[in-house]
Amino acid sequence: MSQAPQPPGAPVVRREGREKVTGTARYAAEHAPPGCLYGWIVPATVPGGVVTATRTADALAVPGVHTVLTPDNAPRLEDPDDPILSVLQDDRVPHRGWPVALVLAESLEAARAGAAAVRVEYRTTGHDVVLTGDHPGLYTPEQANGGHPAVRERGDAEAAFASAPVRIDATYTLGGLHNHPMEPHASTARWADGHLTVHDSSQGSTTVRDSLARALGIDKDHITVISEHVGGGFGSKGTPRPQVVLASMAARHTGRPVQLSLPRRYMAAVVGHRAPTVQRVRLGADREGVLASVSHEIVTHTSTVAEFVEQAAVPARVMYASPHSRTAHRVTALDVPTPSWMRAPGEASGMYALESAMDELACALGIDPVELRLRNEPAAEPDSGRPFSSRNLAACLNDGARRFGWHERDPGPAARQEGPWLLGTGVASATYPVLVSKSAASAHAAPDGSYRIGVNATDIGTGARTVLAQIAASVLGTPPENVRIDIGNSDLPAGSVAGGSSGTASWGSAVHKAATGLAGRLAGRTGPLPPEGVTVTADTARETGEESPYARHAFGAHFVEVAVDSLTGEVRVRRMLGVFAAGHILNSRTARSQFIGGMVMGLGMALTEGSTMDPVFGDFTENDLASYHVPSCADVPDIQAHWIDEDDPHLNPMGSKGIGEIGIVGTAAAIGNAVRHATGARLRTLPLTPDKLL
Ligand code: MOS
Q1: Interface ipTM
Q2: Which of 32, 59, 389, 403 could disulfide-pair with 114, CB 3.0 to 4.6 Å?
Q3: What are residue 189's DSSP bridge partners?
Q4: Which of 228, 307, 646, 661 is catalytic?
Q5: What is its EC number (predicted)?
Q6: 150 CA to middle of ligand 1, Å?
Q7: What pLDDT, in 10s, does the model give residues 98-115?
Q8: pTM more than 0.95
Q9: Structural domain total, the chain
Q10: Ligand 1 site, CB within 6 A
């Protein structure tokens, strides 16, 4: 590592990389305090109803079992801010897998054996778990996820569509998807002298602390939540999950430390999922491909526990110029686990449909799909009329087309063959909003010339420590190695959640402000620092409280080549190339990992991943990694991520946009469009498994 100040964007290596690859980085379940009890949840085995009796005698007779918590003896919770955290409080079973008891034992094995011995009786009330496009329970919610209005209308989309010379009217159907981070959700909780300390696998321990304070009815100063290393989350750890409440209440009840780790097979029921969607897209255009009407209507499900509405129509408010538009969401509450955030909620599913429909329009018109998108570039954000702070979608499309060799393509379907393989290429656009949340940070200068930054950021695998060190070092004019970064502890200055691709912008803005304040204080000084050093703290309440007059989004373009086996229907992706415009890239090494990580997850969405709802059983059937197929190395082809450096002064002091999610946006559409090009077959559902292609 160089000992000189680093230029912005330098590929500084990940600080905790060695700890991670040598196994010395410790995760939430690797902190087992002396005297620790282990928990195992008893999940409801019916998909809806009430518990009529819970018989615990057999479980308590299992050697090593200490306690069985049920709604009869579990501590009362005060005021959980999320109804999914209201566990062991009553006898209702809102969906299969809902926790109905918690067994605590001296070992994990004893807890598991105890859980198997708990006898639960239910009165079932019937269940409704299958989303259909015309489900009778559908209603228009007030808002979709992210606070977006459920419905937006401009002009008269219906009439403009009806009178358009070229029309696409297509319905795309997506099943549920699950995040499945490498590290399952886990919490280790202990109480000492009235203070609760929890190691939790979360994307934001300030949020977990505040939520526990409300649920347990104690002051947040009496809680410390530590999320030092986190093995992925993709949104499923963005809000506190039941295991952290259960572990904390069990530790309080027993007076012993408690560890509760969710088995992989149990995650689908309690950590959220990308909700299924039925999406109708109608595009009306003239014969040159200029859009007159864009309509994107979403049907999705939520649970009876809480309302979560996948905001899949929102990207259509951003993408293409059109005088007439309607974007709308409807939802129905089914007897299913509560959906939640999964990498680019809204954009990932919505852009699959919109970008597939744009390809259908290009095919109908005989216009190149890159060219069709360029013809519909808006001068301002279509929905709001606000100017873009920067929008380089056209540059991404053009640069990507050049790098990929797009224009060598014969546009006709099934034009290229190689033995049994049909070859095709596809393109799709990507977008993701620029989000930023309030954070605080401290910056400390020590007398020995080193610096220390404190901010409750979370590193979910992104390299947050590294980029925050770069930000601080660039302000302080010192090499990044000279800056120590403390993150992952709720006693540090409050940080926002590692979600919404907003982490670096949110924590980085606070770090930048604190470091700037510190640099100012140091500049005014002469002589050595006092022995305690100098510390400056700052927060971004003011900056994040102001609404930007600009529409701020990252953009991108995906180019994909596929081969489809005409005998078996197998789809192989041969090449993926993404070009992104996301402001300044702050660390080219870790940024590339984020982009290609998102692209690989998009490949999974296109080809291998899918959660099937069993209508009789009433739950998702793929609940382990043997049945829920994430791409393995052999599935991942030649993959390239490039970017266009944007100089956008309307973002934050670093000039950065988020990069964690845009890689998954549009990817599945590009693959589907390539499959259409290869075969002539237009599928409007995912994943593109052989049964659908034959
Ligand atoms: Mo991401 S789904 O915002 O953690």
Answers
A1: 0.96
A2: 59
A3: 198, 258
A4: 661
A5: 1.17.1.4
A6: 20
A7: 999 999 999 999 999 999
A8: yes
A9: 3
A10: 203, 233-235, 238, 341-343, 345, 499-500
